[in-house]
Amino acid sequence: MTEVQYVRVEDGTHVAYQVLEADPSAVAPHDIVMVSGGLIPLELFEEEPGFARLLDGLRTIGRVVVFDRRGIGLSDPIVEWDRPIVEQWTDDLKAVVDASGVSDAVIVSWESFGVAPRYVATRPAAVTSLVLYEPMIVPDDEWVEWSAERKREVHANMRGEADILESVAPSLLTDKNFRDWYARAGRSGASPASAGRIWESVFSGHPNDLRLSEIDVPTLVMHRKDNAYACDNVLELAAEQMPDANVVEIDGRDHFPFVGDVDAFVAEIADFVVGERRLPPPQRLLAAVMFTDLVGSTRRAAALGDAHWKVLLDRHDATVRGVVGRTGGTVVKTTGDGVLALFPSAGVALLAARRLQATLAADDLEIRVGVHVGDVDRRGDDVSGLAVNIAARVMSVADDGRVAVTVSVVAAVAGQAGTFESMGPHELKGVPGVWELCRVVEEA
Q1: Chain centroid, CA 421 distance in Å
Q2: Nearest residue to 409 via CA among 352, 361, 360
Q3: Do residues 115 and 71 make contact, with C-beta atoms less than 8 angstroms apart?
Q4: What is residue 124's three-state secondary structure?
Q5: Helices in 159-251 by DSSP H: which ranges?
Q6: How far apart are CA 31 and CA 87, in angstroms?
Q7: DSSP letter at 7?
Q8: Beta carbons of 95 and 68 less than 8 angstroms apart
Q9: CA gap 288, 390 in Å, rounded
């Protein structure tokens, strides 16, 4: 892990930061300073795959400086509660920029509350360009109600009465690994009392505090079009206050930039900064790949009619995401009447398959399943590679209501519970060679 360093701010506060070296592929590398949002400590950034992907993407542009704002993670606690927190965080950013030796900085901010715009407005000569993702721009006449609702939401989440991930990371709502990481990040980021006071302070500001009209450097503003947490017309409002800014809408519904299509987010930043849509290489990992398919879906759809079939499919998708998430897997995508999912082991993939069969049976739905273990290439939300193609072909030859696997799965669960019977050698369309397949034998 990159060494954590400290800088002492003028008021005596110690702020923790790291400098991540540029990827060797970076052309004419820039200095990027990332102003993160939430209360997530820097020590946990790279433990979440999407966050690691985001940092890797930024490193293709140049070296990346990250830091814990005061009151968060490794930095000193907040002492001066009477002074707006955003002002103090702006002092932290200034100190980190100076201490890290950054020159002509590219400020990439997703903290929303105005730290980056405040800094850029006061030190434009130190900044080459500014990237703002989902800045907290709200019409004046909506601010009181909007900010009050955000306060209620965050306090309800802290009391366990609401789930903030429904708003900020809906695509990973049922992902157990992500939920565990996010809970740990919250515990490590700030104590409950400090977190409550921080949120009260940042949501007690005013949209004009962002000082957007004072910014005089090239600026990119990004918004995900289905993000329910941000104001719907954030890009329109940004364009009014910064007529020279580039405003870009990207697909997605997640508020966190490291959830959802991270690559699209990075590509827009790279295009803005260096004029080239740069991405890190795909992540290669060993995984159990599972494809599912509803048996007789065409016949069932015709019998039910479009409206009723859509309701049933929605229930199917929700059920699958829930079961896969609870067993430690990740739904990569739906395939119309099935899913593609990844699991950390063959054993949990087979456990998920059995649970899916049992759970969907309550809706009189029957599935066929194919599972294979192999290396996959992961880029953003999607996966590719021969292992994915093999799993899809295995599923296509599975019997109705059964689970078919390659011998790599059988070998991976050797010694564990589970019985298999040979389906014999198969040629899988588009896949080289002959493959020995097995079916999972139902337990008595």
Answers
A1: 39
A2: 352
A3: no
A4: helix
A5: 165-168, 176-189, 192-202, 234-241
A6: 23
A7: E
A8: no
A9: 11
Paired residues of 384 in beta bridges: 377
- Beta-bridge partner residues of 406: 437
Residues in the chain: 444
Angle at 261 between CA 113 and CA 221, to 5 degrees: 35
Q: Which of 256, 285, 253, 268 is nearest to 379 (CA)?
A: 285
Give the C-alpha separation, 339 to 328, whole Å: 15
Higher-confidence residue of 124 and 304: namely 124
**What's the pLDDT score for residue 382?**
81
Q: Average of pLDDT values for 404-420?
A: 87
Q: Helices (DSSP H) in 60-204: which residue ranges?
A: 85-99, 115-122, 140-158, 165-168, 176-189, 192-202
Tens digits of per-residue pLDDT, 312-371? Answer: 888 888 889 889 988 888 888 888 889 999 999 999 999 999 999 999 888 888 899 999
Q: For the chain, give percent helix, strand, coil, nearest 5.
A: 40, 25, 35
The whole-number average pLDDT for the span 44-51 is 92
Inter-residue long-range contacts of 267-270, CB under 8 Å, 24+ positions, other chains counted:
268/220, 268/222, 269/57, 269/58, 269/61, 269/108, 269/131, 269/220, 270/57, 270/60, 270/61
List, as one string, the DSSP characters of 310-350: HHHHHHHHHHHHHHHHHTT-EEEEE-SSSEEEEESSHHHHH
Q: How far apart are CA 437 and CA 425, in angstroms?
A: 6
Q: Answer whether 106's CB lies under 8 Å from 273's CB.
A: yes
| Residue 201, phi then psi, degrees to nearest 5 | -70, -50
For residues 94 and 112, give the distance between their C-alpha atoms in angstroms, rounded to a whole number: 17
Q: How far apart are CA 406 and CA 411, in angstroms?
A: 9
Pairing of strands 127-133, 339-343: unpaired
List alpha helices for 190-305, DSSP H: 192-202, 234-241, 262-274, 297-304
Tokens of 419: 């019985």
The set of residues, in sequence order, having a beta carbon less than 8 Å from that of 207 and lying 6+ positions away, is 136, 137, 138, 139, 140, 143
Q: Is 306 helix (H, G, I), strand (E, B) or coil?
A: helix
Give the three-state DSSP class for 420. strand
Q: Helix 306-326 vs helix 297-304: angle between axes, to the nearest 10 degrees?
A: 130
Signed CA dihedral, 429, 431, 435, 440: sign only? negative
